[in-house]
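During the reporting period the student researcher (J.K.) took over the structure-prediction task from the postdoctoral fellow and processed the backlog of single-chain submissions. One of the processed entries is reproduced below for the supervisory committee.
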Amino acid sequence: MPLKRLPPDDPREWLNRAGSNLALAAQEVPGVYLEELCFQAQQAAEKAVKAVFIHRGETFPYIHDLDRLLRLLEGNGVTVPRYVNEAKELTRFAVVMRYPGLTGPVAKRTQRRAVRIAAGVLRWATRQVEGRCR
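J.K. obtained the following structure tokens:
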């Protein structure tokens, strides 16, 4: 059943999109490069982080650098846990890993780690948006 679409300025829509990317990232699809799944994990984390910006009424730069986005949130008073900061590892999947020849293929364990990191970021962002911060 498709998710109910919300306005683009609603952080829950960004969380829904992040969840959709995460669901794709976790799939084992024959004929799909693992790098593509890692890209989906990066997108899940990026959209989750941007949902926090929207929830706080803050603008964010249209970039894919998760480390920079998280530093901006911290600079604005958000406590970012260590496990969420691991998302900076996913930034490389936003561009470099998507194009042939720029790097080699990723291993299955790398894809699983990317999914775990993205899932943690999404859980954290959901708590931020729903007001259940830790």
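The committee noted the following: The first helix runs from residue 11 to 25.
J.K. will present the remaining backlog at the next meeting.
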